[in-house]
Design goal:
Number of helices: 6
CATH architecture of the largest domain: 2-Layer Sandwich
CATH topology of the largest domain: BirA Bifunctional Protein, domain 2
Distance between the termini: 48 Å
CATH class of the largest domain: Alpha Beta
CATH superfamily of the largest domain: Bira Bifunctional Protein, Domain 2
Shape: globular
Number of domains: 2
Helix content: 25-40%
Strand order of the largest sheet: 1-2-3-7-6-5-4
Radius of gyration: 18 Å
Number of strands: 12
């Protein structure tokens, strides 16, 4: 379990102060945050749980959220940004997660566009961003982050082989310390969205943090399915993939390493 008083003290000088909401069990922290947003919850509200009964990732993929084993957290933001910047939010959330994991667990993390946290070839976490827009502006954003921390075994039918921070760090990693570090890093990263110069630098920063963004042969899954070699990110955070015929701008979907033929 989390020590809520200690966590509140650690976050006293952040945007999250007084806005932490913990549930021992919930269906989905993203659902909790979205409902709270519709009810007027403030910027910086945090919803986290010890267990999720219906945790999910992108494309409604199920995210197994066993009690006491992982970090399951969703953050509600009301950023004063244009809707055109929404594709950058999963990327800055990824940067925040990488920083927190490296700080607390001392393991290197790779970002697989747009939302996967990998340690070597294995998946350790994922990000689900859901938003409501009003015209060309953002009403609210919910950033859901799930990270495997204490798990030692995983279902054999996962699309990507999984791992946990405990396995990779060869020690027990504190979920509480990880949560505090993640929230602090996410506050810094979300503030970057308010600075035009910082926004322009986000795609390059993500490219530097990822081995998948450039020169990686991938299969693209989703409405823009294709196979090619990644060629960087554009200014909106969309992935560029050079196929045999053209340069494709991938706006949605996911990628996997291309199968050898």
């Amino acid at each position: 379990m989390f020590d809520l008083a200690t966590l509140e003290a650690a976050l006293a000088n952040t945007m999250y102060a007084g806005h932490l909401h913990f549930a021992p069990v919930t269906d989905s922290t993203n659902n909790d945050a979205a409902q709270a947003a519709r009810n007027g919850a403030p910027h910086g509200s945090v919803f986290f749980a010890d267990e999720q009964l219906a945790g999910r990732g992108r494309s409604d993929h199920r995210w197994h959220s066993a009690a006491g084993q992982g970090l399951y957290v969703s953050v509600l933001l009301r950023p004063q940004i244009f809707a055109a910047y929404l594709p950058l939010i999963p990327l800055v959330a990824g940067l925040a997660a990488v920083d927190a994991i490296q700080t607390v667990a001392n393991v290197a993390v790779d970002l697989r566009w747009p939302n996967d946290l990998l340690i070597s070839p294995r998946k350790a976490g994922g990000i689900l961003v859901e938003a409501k827009t009003e015209g060309n502006t953002v009403a609210f954003v919910v950033i859901g982050i799930g990270i495997n921390v204490h798990q030692q075994t995983f279902a054999p039918d996962l699309c990507t082989a999984a791992t946990s921070l405990d396995i990779e760090a060869h020690r027990r990693v504190s979920r509480q310390n990880l949560l505090a570090a993640l929230l602090k890093s996410l506050e810094c990263e979300s503030n970057e969205l308010l600075d035009p110069a910082a926004i322009a630098a986000i795609p390059q920063r993500v490219e530097q943090a990822s081995t998948w963004i450039r020169g990686h042969k991938v299969d693209v899954h989703g409405p823009q399915a294709c196979t090619g070699v990644t060629a960087g990110l554009n200014e909106h955070g969309f992935l560029l993939v050079r196929t045999a015929d053209e340069l494709v701008t991938i706006q949605t979907g996911g990628i996997r390493a291309a199968e050898m033929k």
